[in-house]
Amino acid sequence: MDAMPPTLPPWPYPDIPPAPPPPPPREPAWSGLELTLIVIFTLAAMVVVSLIAVFTWAIAARASGQVLGMPREQMIVALMLLGQTGGFFLGFGFAWTWVAQAQGRKFWDAIHWRKLSASGAAYALLGGVALMAVVQLLGHWVHMPKNTPEQALFTPHTAWMLAVYGVVIAPFFEEFFFRGLLYPTLKATFTSGMEQDELRRWRPLTRILAALGVLAVVVWALRAHFMLGTSVGVEKPILVVALLVILVMPQWLLQGVGWILNQIARLNRGEALAILVTGFLFGMMHAAQLSWAWGPVLLLAFVGIVLTAVRAASGSLVPSWLMHCAYNGVLFVAEFVTTQGFHHFPH
């Protein structure tokens, strides 16, 4: 007896259920550990590029028998800016390669570099001008040092280099690292905390940094003792012991950090905390060139908080970048006017 054909459902046939949508891409496309590696690579690149620039200049000066017709302060600033710019470019390229190849993401989408309308760009530029006006107003109520390392860099020979760097180059890279990479990383960390697997991945780098810290402290102490004739003191051996403990048992430090971050995540204030911390770190980045004076550092932290809030509210890196350019641009225009065309500086 022949087998009966299978019974088909009545017409129309039921639709095949659609395939489930792919999971959303990781936001951000990098982890805190990966961001730390990008920062370390960038700082190392700055050092290497600076050393190459110094040696190249020294060889060229020795070969020509003169200092290449460049004033000393101009040479120092040129080498400094070259090292910073070269390091930033290499760090940017390293991050691009990491995100595009390792994570399979479109780089500009990953850092939230999104198009802005003409009116939006105009508002961002005006916002930068207004931000500078507010900072100048607040500056009357905080202590501002008269002489800082940053001010010492400005001379008639260096002002134009610093102006071009400060308006064209620095805002982009600072926004990329602080608002493009750091802010979303902090937001994700302060929102979700850290799991044990992520803490374990931090152990090798923590050991490396602890070992480098021990080496740096020992070299600094030996230099102070044999070259400067100063005593080692008590704090350096204590610091070495603490770093050695971290080197041997990094999980102690990491577990504490993880517990703190998980407690922060319970506050449900991840975005607000990320904005504040990003702005604070932005101010601290400029602290050394401002002689660690709390007044200007706090003002720059305020600037960083405003720029990060704009990045968070707009969902794009472009508005904060334009605001940053306008802010620095107004600063240099004011310097140009008060110094009569970058010719008469007070120091």
Q: Number of helical runs?
A: 13
Low-pLDDT residue spans: none
Structural class of the secondary structure composition?
A: mainly alpha
How many domains make up the coordinates?
A: 2
Averaged pLDDT: 86
Please write the string of helix (H) and strand (E) elements: HHHHHHHHHHHHH
> What is the oligomeric state here?
single chain
Terminal-residue CA separation: 110 Å
As a percent range, the share of helical residues equals over 70%
- Tell me the total number of β-strands: 0
For the biggest sheet, the summary is: none
Strand content: under 5%
Shape annotation: globular
Radius of gyration from the alpha-carbon trace, in angstroms:
26 Å
Provide a concise account of the structure shown.
The protein has 347 residues and is mainly alpha-helical. 71% of the residues lie in helices and 0% in strands. The protein folds into 2 domains: 28-111, no CATH class; 118-339, no CATH class.
Structure characterization notes:
This protein is an all-alpha fold and 347 residues long. It folds into two domains: 28-111, no CATH class; 118-339, no CATH class. It is built from 13 helices and no strands. It has helices at residues 32-64, 72-102, 107-110, 118-138, 149-153, 159-192, 196-201, 203-226, 235-248, 250-265, 270-285, 294-314, 318-338. Helix 1 runs antiparallel to helix 2 (72-102).
